[in-house]
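Regression test case RT-17, inverse folding.

Input:
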């Protein structure tokens, strides 16, 4: 890719910053949307990118900010959605469930919706969203698992619309397994580094994949989990 623009939504996260670095190295012009833009000023200066604030809990604000950034960039070939809320509390407090639904369902849908419509006008583009293998079955983080299932289903729906409109708009579901945020000190068997996840994600996006497991071994883990009958799956121990 060259002389192209990409937007990363949720740019404060370490994974987003790694994606930004790798895209910049490929000559892509970047627009970043971040909850805390001030914290990203050094990165903005380094990459020479555009940077706007984002509150993913406010669908109107985030759609408007997205559209403004889109205008500034004169469109974008790629939009990566990497905003998320998560948390595990076995008491299932509603405040936690609600915040996960606000960010991962309402906020995600607001951004995916506006990005897709801009791409329809532009007549091409690609949306990549980090979901999770957690979306494939219910789990202890009840709202998180359900929100990721929503995202996967929503992305599939957008893919259908792109086909119906006969437009080259690619929708890529990036199913992340486990990111090693401890940079080498986490579980090495299942966790992968930021560099590896970002590299595999961009490679899959460039190949126009619809769905990608990150890292690849999580495809097998997902297949095994999906094959387990309910009476075994529901007896999993997680605490
Ligand atoms: N980490 C894992 O092992 C793992 C496993 C499976 C799937 N995933 C999925 O992969 C993706 C990336 O994971 P991650 O660990 O890199 O996530 P993360 O570090 O928690 O990043 C989430 C991003 O969302 C932003 N965000 C949250 N609430 C927001 C709000 N109200 N307004 C604006 N931005 C908001 C955060 O901004 P702030 O930093 O400013 O809060 C951050 O940039 C997520 O979709 C996650 O669900 C992660």
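Golden output:
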């Amino acid at each position: 890719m060259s002389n192209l623009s990409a937007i990363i939504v949720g740019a404060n996260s370490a994974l987003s910053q790694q994606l930004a670095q790798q895209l910049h190295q490929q000559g892509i012009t970047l627009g970043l949307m971040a909850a805390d833009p001030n914290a990203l000023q050094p990165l903005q200066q380094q990459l020479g990118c555009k940077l706007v604030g984002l509150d993913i809990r406010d669908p109107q604000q985030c759609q408007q900010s997205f559209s403004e950034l889109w205008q500034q960039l004169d469109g974008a070939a790629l939009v990566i959605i990497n905003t998320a809320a998560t948390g595990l509390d076995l008491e299932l407090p509603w405040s936690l469930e609600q915040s996960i639904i606000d960010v991962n369902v309402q906020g995600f849908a607001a951004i995916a919706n506006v990005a897709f419509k801009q791409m329809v006008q532009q007549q091409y583009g690609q949306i990549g969203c980090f979901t999770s293998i957690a979306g494939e079955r219910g789990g202890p983080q009840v709202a998180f698992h359900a929100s990721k299932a929503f995202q996967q289903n929503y992305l599939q729906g957008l893919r259908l619309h792109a086909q119906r409109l006969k437009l080259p708009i690619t929708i890529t579901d990036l199913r992340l397994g486990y990111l090693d945020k401890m940079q080498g000190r986490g579980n090495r068997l299942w966790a992968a580094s930021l560099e590896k996840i970002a590299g595999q994600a961009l490679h899959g996006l460039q190949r126009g994949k619809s769905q990608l497991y990150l890292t690849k071994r999580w495809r097998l883990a997902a297949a095994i989990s999906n094959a387990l009958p309910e009476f075994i799956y529901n007896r999993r121990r997680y605490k």
